[in-house]
Structures are given as structure tokens and as C-alpha cells.
Specification:
With 303 residues, the chain is an alpha/beta fold. The chain is 38% helix and 14% strand.
């Protein structure tokens, strides 16, 4: 069943609420929606070319699979090629996936992904800002891309031509304060133009899922297939200055995200990303009222 949720609702995805031009309403279908705001939820987008190479398809699938085994939710746009491969890897890994559509949720587009779309509706979540019956239009997809990146703590670009929707998604992610990762490919290939351009501009080079996990500050586990859901090891990673500043605001008293932003002076997107990481590392948790509070044992270890 397709449901709708408005931006002001406390169940609206918190990462998406803080981005510029956040959608006023979302339509969704699937059991994964309520997990997006759980304290341990962590999301990474994987995007790329519709006309992908076998290398790109295999890498998108494998990276999504391994991240999903770790407990990370994969976000993409349900297009043919890289998007579809990433969704399949995420579903097979067990943590699920979010597909953001540029049409109504009752419309199959592309039709070649009909079975995949139906599976995501059963096991993950389908999202759109467009109501039922809305047909896909060219202008819908740049709008959709801001939701893909807005839902994610980071965006991995697997393949993309020099001028493509993939590059638009990466640019949008940067403007939203999200991390951008890129997978290198063969020199001179049409599909390596966008990732190589991003790498030259300073994007994080990714060859395996472990590279993304390291960037997120998540510890290694001996067996990712055990689905440890991001529970950190005893050797907790050292926090950055900004992370410490955010954590210090909730040591003595629960705070809303707006209060944390005010007290730290950091940008909304930065605070949102830090809060997600602090939650996954078990430094803080979020109350039913939406306030953040420190978990005393972890905080004592920090100080």
C-alpha cells in the first residue's frame, strides 16, 4: 500500500529534512521506511550509468552487497545499469535498499525493472515526491537526484559519462555537504569520465566496500555476513573536533537537532551527518521525542 508523509512529520527522514529544497511530501511503499530514522541506520547511495560496463555492474553489485551485509542501507534511483545492480546487491546482502523514483510509485519505469521494483516494495522501500499516476518526465530526474543524495551520508559514483545525471547527483551531494566517493576505471573509457573527474577534484577513491567503511569510521569485522549492523569494536575510533563539539552539547541534557546546530555553529548538513555517525558508533541515541542524548558509558570513555 502506498502511503504519504509530510515534511513536518517526526517520521520524515531526518537527513532529507535538513537539505535545501527538501520535499514537502513523500510517497512511500515498503517495510524499510521506518528504519530510516532508527539510531543505528546508516545510508549510502550508489549511482552510475544506465549503459554500464560489465566491470561497473559487477563492482556496484559487490560493493552494495558487502555494505548491506554490514548493515548499511543502499539508496539509488532504480534506473537500468548501475542503479539496478546496486539495488540487487543490497537486497541480497540483507539490509535492504531505498529506490527513489522519478514518477508515481504505481508506475513501472523502466519497465525492464518491474520485478525489481516489486521486490523492493516488498523488502525495502520505494520513495517518490510524485503522486500515484505521475508519469516519468525528464525534469523529474534532477529533482529525484537531490532526494537520493539527501537521504544518504555519502554517494558512490561507479560509472558515468562526462555529462550525465550521475554527475548532477554528485554535484548535488557536494552542495548538500555529503561525502562523494568514486570508483576508478580504465583510462579513456567513456564511462570513467565522471568518476575520474570527481577523483581529480578530491573525491575519495573507492576500490572496495572497506574503503567506504573506513571513511565512515566503522571498524572492521572478521565476517561481514554476520550482519553486525555497525556495532563498533572496543577500539572506538577517535572523534574529530566537530564530532566532539556535537557530542559535548548532549552530555548533560537531551537536545533537539536545531538546538545542537545553534550551540555548535555548524551547518545543518554537517550536524546531521555527525549525528548519524555518533549514533552508529553508540555515543548517542535519539528519544521518541526526537531529542539526542549521550549514552553514558561511551561518553565516559571519550572524556
Amino acid at each position: 500500500m502506498i502511503k504519504a508523509i509530510v515534511n513536518a512529520d517526526k517520521k520524515f527522514p531526518i537527513l532529507l529534512r535538513t537539505v535545501p529544497q527538501s520535499p514537502k511530501i513523500l510517497y512511500y511503499q515498503g517495510p524499510l521506511f521506518d528504519r530510516l530514522n532508527e539510531p543505528t541506520a546508516l545510508t549510502v547511495a550508489i549511482v552510475g550509468s544506465r549503459r554500464a560496463t560489465r566491470y561497473g555492474l559487477d563492482m556496484a553489485y559487490e560493493i552494495a552487497l558487502e555494505l548491506s551485509k554490514y548493515g548499511i542501507i543502499i539508496v539509488s534511483g532504480l534506473a537500468e545499469g548501475i542503479d539496478a545492480a546496486a539495488h540487487k546487491g543490497a537486497l541480497d546482502g540483507g539490509s535492504g535498499t531505498v529506490a527513489v523514483l522519478g514518477c508515481g510509485l504505481d508506475v513501472y519505469y523502466p519497465y525492464a525493472n518491474k520485478a525489481l521494483q516489486e521486490r523492493i516494495g516488498r523488502e525495502g522501500v520505494l520513495l517518490s515526491e510524485f503522486p500515484s499516476g505521475a508519469r516519468p518526465q525528464g525534469k523529474h530526474f534532477p529533482s529525484r537526484n537531490r532526494i537520493i543524495s539527501g537521504l544518504s551520508t555519502g554517494v558512490l559514483v561507479v560509472e558515468g559519462a562526462e555529462r550525465s545525471g550521475t554527475l548532477i547527483t554528485a554535484d548535488t551531494a557536494l552542495s548538500q555537504g555529503r561525502d562523494v566517493y568514486a570508483l576508478p576505471g580504465p583510462a579513456g573509457s567513456r564511462n570513467t569520465k565522471t568518476p575520474h573527474k570527481l577523483l581529480r577534484a578530491g573525491a575519495c577513491l573507492v576500490e572496495t566496500a572497506r574503503d567506504i567503511l573506513d571513511e565512515l569510521g566503522l571498524p572492521a569485522h572478521t565476517n561481514l555476513s554476520e550482519k553486525n549492523k555497525g556495532i563498533p569494536s572496543k577500539n572506538t575510533p577517535q572523534l574529530s573536533a566537530d564530532e566532539t563539539a556535537v557530542l559535548s552539547t548532549v552530555v548533560n541534557m537531551p537536545k533537539t537537532i536545531d538546538k545542537i546546530i545553534y550551540e555548535t555553529g555548524l551547518q545543518c548538513d554537517k550536524v546531521s551527518s555527525i549525528l548519524v555517525l555518533l549514533e552508529i558508533q553508540k555515543y548517542i541515541t535519539r528519544s521518541l521525542e526526537g531529542e539526542y542524548v549521550s549514552l553514558s558509558k561511551q561518553t565516559e570513555d571519550l572524556w
